[in-house]
């Protein structure tokens, strides 16, 4: 029987393992930590009974993922839950940009910007499944839906700052800017619109749901399916070389390119090793989880019903802050991503105390403390927030990397979203998953299509590995 070892039990590692197991391969997954899940782990970080997501929190690409959809994970305990409002971006005026899953309702709230919003996201959202069929694959392929891909590609090439000019209202511009900032890159750079376009379209097509019981429920369900398929998972196993894995037919590495250099060593072809050494990592996340007595006292009423919030002010303020972190400068007012997952999933709360999830965008390798900057951004849009805090857990940039070795320098996206690395990551080549070592493949989010809990990097890498077996 064909055998495979998968290193890393995050969503992409488990996706690769499941796809191989479905094809009759005997699969063994090795995880260095004591718990599986990578970026989808959840923990009681502040007070007993409060469930906090350790990293990933909202899953528009997870619920939209063609591969995850094919697994029937609902049969293994995964249940998606939606808040009343998917996303809100408040401004100092007390107003806000609001993204409802219903695009018509979103556009209606935008007044004079409504028609332009519909023109940008109407077809993108209605044809989102066709689009993901092409975008969630390596760039070098024959597109199944060339017209949709071409329309998206033209808009995706533009800097986010240029795309934002389509709208006149500061609320609308800020709403798009906050979503585009998920790229952790300059909003004036080419292709910086791409992430904002995809995540906004996903929001209208599928919403921004959370997983009941915490993000860990996603990989728990995947692990249950893998076990049913005969695959095994071993935790607490640190892999330091390919030689330690024995002689499986396939090795799938759900790790950062820097770790491949360590694990593969001299077996890597020179050209691949050079590319992995040149691979760029992006800005970092500084994370705080809060235990809050009652609800956050948001000034804007829509914020009180939103699962996700972006705190950063106007588009111009967000763009300035993102530009600073790319340059290695810590902003006085960083972009802060906030999660109120408990609004959709009350099981995460306990006795009137609710978990609030937040992280700030900070420079790569940032060694300072962003705690006060994050709380100040809350206070800016929710005066009195500080007085509601009854517990908190801080995870600095260095601790983010300790928590997950793939997060080099605190980069939770496992790679900078430069124009080149958006188009081709981790290196230029027809097969981005091949390490150049026969039977050894990279399947982490350092490969196409990049970061996000969607499993497509692992699925695509497994497809590549299976083609190798057939050749």
Automatic annotation (TrEMBL):
Coiled coil: none annotated. Pfam families: NAD_binding_8 (PF13450). Transmembrane segments: none annotated. PANTHER family: DEHYDROGENASE-RELATED (PTHR10668:SF105), PHYTOENE DEHYDROGENASE (PTHR10668). This is FAD-dependent oxidoreductase.
